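Why should sequence recovery work at all? Because a backbone constrains its sequence more than one might expect. Tight turns favour small or flexible residues, buried strands favour hydrophobic ones, and helices have their own preferences. The token representation captures these environments compactly. In the example below, the structure is given first.
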């Protein structure tokens, strides 16, 4: 008889912040609980035949599909021993929010440049963000949505339980420079899809009620 404690522990989903030049992980954000579902939206980059009326473009693809992922994650300070309970889920929330916030030092530096009359300031480039959903899906992403619902608080109003709605957009070779580490990781992800698709057993026309085409 197999006991519950004997079952293999599932890997956890999470986010990895990577130095795009060296490829070294700078931070790993592990989702406390794996989401119950993952919503994926995939839209082709068509050749533009519908807009321009060019029938020769109807079956063409301009590039990789535009893909967005959404999921809901839960945080509970009573079940994360690695974080001091006195901080609640603040550290986990802050780590996720900093994925779309520029560093304070860079904001101060840009303010000093603006005070000196420099009108053109280079936007801050964030580290490469990877979303990991198992070993077969490691993809470069941009955080597009982060909605936080804090559901319980301690006596100091520290959030001790929260639900997150997270939206991600996969970054493809259309978004990143040639040779960028993120572009190579996306191509590896696409190649993995090709291999998986090749393992699907082909059907027969008879199963569709057809004898020929």
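From this structural description, the recovered sequence reads:
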């Amino acid at each position: 008889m197999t006991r519950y404690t004997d079952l293999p522990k599932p890997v956890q989903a999470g986010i990895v912040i990577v130095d795009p030049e060296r490829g070294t992980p700078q931070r790993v954000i592990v989702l406390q609980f794996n989401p119950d579902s993952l919503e994926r939206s995939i839209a082709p980059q068509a050749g533009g035949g519908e807009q321009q009326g060019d029938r020769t473009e109807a079956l063409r693809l301009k590039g990789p599909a535009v893909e967005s992922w959404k999921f809901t994650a839960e945080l509970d300070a009573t079940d994360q021993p690695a974080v001091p309970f006195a901080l609640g889920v603040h550290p986990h929330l802050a780590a996720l929010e900093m994925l779309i916030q520029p560093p304070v030092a860079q904001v101060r530096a840009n303010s000093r440049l603006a005070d000196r009359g420099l009108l053109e300031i280079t936007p801050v480039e964030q580290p490469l963000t990877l979303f990991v959903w198992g070993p077969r899906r490691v993809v470069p992403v941009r955080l597009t949505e982060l909605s936080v619902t804090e559901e319980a608080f301690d006596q100091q109003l520290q959030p001790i339980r929260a639900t997150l709605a997270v939206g991600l957009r996969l970054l493809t070779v259309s978004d990143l420079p040639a040779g960028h580490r993120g572009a190579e990781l996306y191509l590896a992800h696409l190649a993995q899809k090709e291999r998986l698709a090749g393992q699907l057993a082909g059907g027969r026309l008879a199963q569709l009620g057809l004898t020929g085409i």
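A few observations help interpret the result. The chain has a mean pLDDT of 86.
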